[in-house]
Amino acid sequence: HMSVDGHHIGGTEPSIMRKEKILAHLPMALVPEAGRVLSVGLGSGVTLGTLSLYDEIGELVCVEIVPGVVEGAKLFAAANFHVLDDPRTKMKVGDGVQFLLTENGEFDLISSDSKLNPEYSGNAALLSKDYYELCRDRLSDEGVMVQWLATHLPSSEVRTVTRSFQAAFPHTGIFWLDPYNVILVGSPSPLAYHMERVESALEDERIRADLAAMLLDDPYVMASLFVSGNEVLAEAVGDGPVNSWARPILEFSTVREYRVKSRSYHEDENLRWLNNQRRVGGLPVIGAFAPGRLADARLVTDKLLEGYAAGGGVARLNSGRASFEEGLAAVPEDPRLSFLLGALDQMSSALEQIVESSGDASSLVQLGLQRRDEGRFLEALDLFDRALLEAPGDINIRYNRIITLRDMDRITEMEVDLFDFRKDYPEDARGWSLEGRLMADRGRDEEALDFFERAAELDPGSTIYLNNLATALARLDRFSEAGDVFARVYELDNGYPGAAFFAAASYSMAGRTVEAGLWMEICIEGRLATYEQFETGEFFETLRNSADWREQSAP
Question: How far apart are CA 394 and CA 402, in angstroms?
Fold first, then answer.
């Protein structure tokens, strides 16, 4: 691998190679023709080298701010196809923004890999509306730009970058390549997948081999990676801040967000967000294609994303095994799910061996989480206890032990541990939320509300804690407040189950029929509920008897 100031910027690990290569192959499938391309950032040179496989490209321009990276990339010649020796390569050492400000030529493709990192800031300028506008202005009429983001970025940051990207481009889309890769695509023209160009490119053995290593040598698979675009993506992002040079909010928020929540938390939120906005139909395809094959590829990608979004982040995929197996049974000829399931089995076996030989805390926790997902709670509890011996006082191990006690219905023991957890970590919202759930389960709604309010106060961006709070308010007949909180849940995650519907119900029960009617429209237009549910549901009697029902809901 290669690092700058101790921070990893490129390498030949499979996950890194997968990311660097998709930033070349995907845009080549979306642009009608690519005579001149630009890569902002060199790293190990794999993205630029992958682009060099396409003979139609006449000029490969790359701008890299760190001179030593250019020298370092020469050591990766085998991985980057000796791209620095390619006569088409025009290497520019300097700042990407300055290059775009002074470069007058057009590009058919711009690939950008600007990163946000939990350990430092500094890249906000290259993840801003202003930067994306510069890139847009340097694109040909049908050119495309791609921007990579990681699934482990804070979900608020992913939406801020996406919102900034959409503010610059008239046509946008978002793609997902398992496990970590989110790719934004923007263009002055409507986006489309050029099937025949991809099939033609696959006749080149170098390109086919490169894609085969990523299980993408079937042209229908890459087409299926599209998640959403334009209006659907804008709805998923919602209203909120835009990162700009005048107001570089990402410089200040990223490190804070990483300190507040774990990486797996962010992965879980982003994967659910992607899964909630994925729509049937997908990206328009230009050229002859087989609809059945495309539908099969999309089904497998659906099941992959559904399984990854099942909970726990990328490191805990056993919770998604049912989705993976369902997809494999439906389309057994697609190798992606069989490969993943085989890898999960191998990792499980390897993890067991590591635990037997070393018993380090990290491995014990990973195996404990796996056992808990499998319902083997006694084994999970033993593994967490062993992990605490290796890492006494570890906050996450303690919390997972408490959850396991709950799953085993050892409530008395759980309550003792939970009391100590809240005492030792009063700023951790999880302890307050879990105590609230215990109170709610016992019908002690007033006490539950106090705990849920504290959890939401400590982590106001958590849809789970806010939904718990809204539910508690509704159970106490405080419907007006419940409606406001359910509405906030929807604003943070418009795919959160039931948020919009219960906002409408709460507002109706509170007599706020204007808001109830508006949320009813949101539910129907977003296919979150049917007209009949509002026409017959007991929660909506007040709305049905109001002028707002007639004005906003007449067929």
Answer: 13
The separation between the first and the last C-alpha atoms of the chain, rounded to the nearest angstrom, is 61
Q: Which helix (H) or strand (E) holds 271?
A: helix 263-277
105: nearest Cα among 44, 63, 159, 156: 63
> Residues 538, 437, 472, CA angle at the centre, nearest 5°?
35
Region of 180 (left: φ > 0; alpha: ψ -120 to 50; beta: rest) is alpha
For 60-124, the DSSP string reads EEEEES-HHHHHHHGGGTTTTTTGGG-TTEEEEES-HHHHHHH--S-EEEEEE----BTTB---G
pLDDT over 70 at 118, yes or no: no
**Number of C-beta neighbours around residue 454 at 10 A:** 20
- 221 to 198, 280, 436, 440: CA distances (angstroms): 11, 15, 44, 46
61-65, 198-202, 269-273: least confident range = 269-273
Structure tokens at 187: 């263009």
Q: Rounded distance, CA 343 to CA 337, Å?
A: 10
Any residues with CB less than 8 A from the CB of 223 and at least 6 apart, and which? 29, 193, 195, 198, 282, 283, 285, 294, 297
Question: Residue 228 pLDDT > 60, yes or no?
Answer: yes
Q: How far apart are CA 21 and CA 161, in angstroms?
A: 21
Q: Inform me whether the pLDDT recorded for 19 exceeds 60.
A: yes
Length of the chain as a residue count: 555
Residues with Cβ within 8 Å of residue 383, at least 6 apart in sequence:
355, 364, 365, 367, 368, 371
